[in-house]
Amino acid sequence: MFLAMLMVVNGIFLAAAVAFTWDSVKEYEWRAFKVGFGGVLCMVVLGVVILLMPGLRWFVAIILGALILLFFICLIPGRSNPRALTGSQGYVAKNVQRFDERDIVFARNRSLPPGAAIYKRYYQMHPEREEGDAKRRAAGGPFGRIGSIDGQHRPNIAMLKGTFHLPPSLGQKENVEPPPEPSAFPMDPREATERIKGFARHLGADLVGICRLDPCWAYSHRGEIFFDNWDDWGKEIPLPLPFVIVIAVQMEAELVRGAPHTPSVVESGVNYAKGAYISTILANFIAQLGYPAVAQHLRHYDLVLVPVAVDAGLGELGRFGYLITKEFGPRVRLAAVTTSLPLVPDKPVDLGAQEFCARCLKCAETCPSASIPRGEKVVFNGVEKWKLDEEGCFDYWGKVGTDCNICMAICPYSRPNRSFHRLTRWMVARSPLARALFPYIDNIVYGRKWHSGRVPSWIDYSQGKKA
Ligand code: SF4
Ligand code: SF4
Predict the structure, then answer these.
(1) How far apart, in whole angstroms, are the C-alpha atoms of residue 350 and residue 79?
(2) Which residues, judged by CB distance below 6 Å to any ligand atom, belong to the binding site of ligand 2?
(3) Fewer CB atoms inside 10 Å of the end CB: C or N, the chain?
(4) Residue 385 belongs to what H/E stretch?
């Protein structure tokens, strides 16, 4: 009986090690493959010991028992984080000033033509930014020479430009007014919520959440000018409509692992385009029901999407300033629709990310521009958070000619949504011990340093690197 029990338990561990090793091969994670293969060998050796060395069976039983005990201790739930469950307001320490869209680096680069009256107006308000912005403009903008890290490899640059072309094309259609006739279709909020979420998923959204607008996260003044609407620059932006539908679309891990090379920025563009497509159709759907709706997508925003996504229950804010979702970690791009159609809001979630990030630091240690803080959170504009140095981050984008994405790629939450990673995320969300252990386990299994991974051949960039 004792022998049979030992063989069964050893067999379960062996099967788990084989499955992990196979998953690592599929994910091109060679270090994890070696660790998994080491686990397979250990279990085979233990199996041989169980069968051939009866005197050592108790010793093997203690090893297997300790592993089982550790696993079950990591399932013991701890106390939830009440701040995470409050949503973005859980981290508001003082008054928050609404963010001015004119201050966004893309708006400063694109919408302030040197010599124009608005150029003078802006740099009179912010003289400290003029020199740095002029340098960035002269170097080609926030992306610098697009794709320079890959020798501007033409096929990938063409894909990149193709994808980023779509949101501006749809941007003029973002404000959708309902037709004058017929009058608004009366809808129960629960039914409207179910239909909108179902339709959004059908259109390609991977995650959909709903919240009421928190005015703190609405932009205060217009700064992005796309369609020669120069009179809008500097105008106060009215508060958006009161309900927000937030959409997340998944960035494929097999392209994100190419960061900071062009495949990962192509994937950013693909998912911004998907977000523009989904939010525009959703806004039109809602308008056809008789309710005003505004599509919020790349660079056509009336609100800051990450805290709104936190409020809509899609995830938590991580050390690097991205949203961390339960399903895909930070590997998502966001879009939204604001509307007056009454909907049922979702609840914010506690994934254990605050405690995990406090111990992990992997993104901060890997960031090539040292833009992610390694220390404690600070209060910035009334919000307690790890404060990213955005200017430093954009300077690195300018050097490589992509949106970098190394911090997204290396984050342990970014691992593909497979059974082992799902189990890990579930344990981290529940157990304080798992939150303490897994940052170290992740370092052992996957390493601390970033190495760009293999990407599919259709988006290979090696020809450009040789140019
Ligand atoms: S890499 Fe680590 S510290 Fe950075 S966001 Fe991800 S979990 Fe948090
Ligand atoms: S995108 Fe790159 S440069 Fe910017 S914070 Fe992340 S790792 Fe650092």
Answers:
(1) 10
(2) 320, 367-369, 371-372, 393, 396, 404-407
(3) N
(4) strand 383-385
Span from the CA of 365 to the centroid of ligand 1 (angstroms): 10
DSSP conformation class of 300? B
Q: What angle do CA 429, 432, 435 make, to 5 degrees?
A: 65
Going by C-beta distance under 8 Å and a sequence separation of 6 or more, which residues neighbour residue 425? 326, 351, 413
One-letter amino acid for residue 276 of the chain: A
SS3 223: coil
Per the CB < 8 A criterion, the answer to whether 249 and 220 are in contact is: no
**Is 10 within 8 Å of 59 (Cβ atoms)?**
no
d(CA 55, CA 357): 45
Of 393, 397, 414, which is best to mutate to test ligand 2, by the most ligand atoms within 8 angstroms of its C-beta?
393
- Ligand 2 nearest-atom number relative to CA 259: 2
Give the residue from 149, 371, 362 showing the smallest Cα distance to 266.
149
Of the pLDDT bands very low, low, confident and very high (cuts 50, 70, 90), residue 267 is very high
Record the pTM: 0.94
pLDDT digits (tens, 9 = 90+) for 328-382: 999 999 999 999 999 999 999 999 999 999 999 999 999 999 999 999 999 999 9
User: Which of 265, 372, 388, 402 most suits a substitution to test ligand 2, by most atoms within 8 Å of the C-beta?
Assistant: 372
CA neighbor of 19 nearest in space, from 5, 40, 47: 40
Ligand 2 atom 3 nearest Cα: 393
CA of 392 to the centre of ligand 2 (A): 8
Joined tokens for residue 406: 């190394």
